[in-house]
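User:
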Amino acid sequence: MDLEHFDCKTDSVGKLGVIDDFFNFLFRKILKLSEKDLI
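Assistant: Predicted structure:
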């Protein structure tokens, strides 16, 4: 088994998770702002 290859895979998955969380956070902020504008 190639451990280095496995480490790269888990590292990229971790980075994708962080990016995904960041975009989810931005999306919620934008939704909240648009709700305030509508009210």
